[in-house]
Amino acid sequence: MKGGDGFGTIYWVYGSSHKIFDWQFNEQGEVIDEHGRVVITAMRFNYLETAKNSLQSLDTELASLVGLRDRLKADGLSRGEKIYLDSEQALVTASAIENIATKGLDLLISLYDDAIQEAEDLWNLIVRQAYTAGPKLSESEIYSALSDVGVTRESISVSDFQRYREKKALAYELKREFEGIAQKMRSGIQKQLDQDQELARNFKQWDLMR
After folding, report:
1. In the prediction, which pLDDT does 38 show?
2. 31 burial class (0-12, 13-18, 19+ CB within 10 angstroms)?
3. Tell me, what DSSP letter sits at residue 9?
4. Are 31 and 25 in contact (CB under 8 A)?
5. Of 35, 82, 151, 185, which residue has the fewest beta carbons closer than 10 angstroms?
6. Does the global pTM surpass 0.70?
7. Helices 79-133 and 159-178 meet at what angle, rounded to 10?
């Protein structure tokens, strides 16, 4: 799928078909192959859709601004017109980046949650198998036997918990930084408009021209 000028090409990584109707889904909304294996989870698919829609919206908004710029520059762009075009381009780009980044970080956080759970599940599975192998051993003897071969809850899951929780905390921090980028930019523009009523009136007029 080709984006607008300057955006390059978006490649569908999974499968050869670009048509969503050709894809197969299971009951959980996950994309599956011809053998029923999950190739894209529902959350990942939703993220791909969000990214695609955000880029398409960005393409449309930028095309609208280009059209307005071409109409305005016939008489030469005024200072106010340049401010408007630059600020609107920055806003629509920031909005797209914010949307894609925050949704992507939501996906990353979910993956870390899954990894934490998998680490705990792995430890529980090892313990159950140890009980099966030594049904007459007490709980302390089971744990001691596992420890003798270097298998402890700390080595299997606790270290993973700590690592993934640190990564998850970083992802949350990044998400907070991305959230509100566009709103902060709008607030800055509005502050400028509050100090220049003529520019504010012109902004409204140019909005209607798009």
Report:
1. 58
2. buried
3. B
4. yes
5. 35
6. no
7. 160
> Which two tokens mark 51?
């990214």
* Residues 141 and 121 sit within 8 Å (Cβ to Cβ): no
Give the residue carrying structure tokens 């400028």. Answer: 192
DSSP state of 23: S
Token pair, residue 57, equals 């919206």
Integer Cα distance of 21 and 28 in angstroms = 17
Other C-beta atoms closer than 10 Å to the C-beta of 75 total: 8
Q: Specify the pLDDT at position 123.
A: 86
Nearest-CA neighbor of 65 among 6, 2, 1? 6
pLDDT in tens, 55-88: 888 889 999 999 999 999 888 899 999 999 999 9
The amino acid occupying position 35 is H
Q: Name the residue among 47, 167, 175 with its Cα closest to residue 114.
A: 167
Residue of 130, 177, 183, 175 whose CA lies nearest to 152: 130
SS3 40: strand
DSSP 150: T
Residues 6 or more apart in contact with residue 34 via CB below 8 angstroms:
24
At position 72, the amino acid (one-letter code) is L
What pLDDT, on a 0 to 100 scale, did the predictor assign at position 161? 75
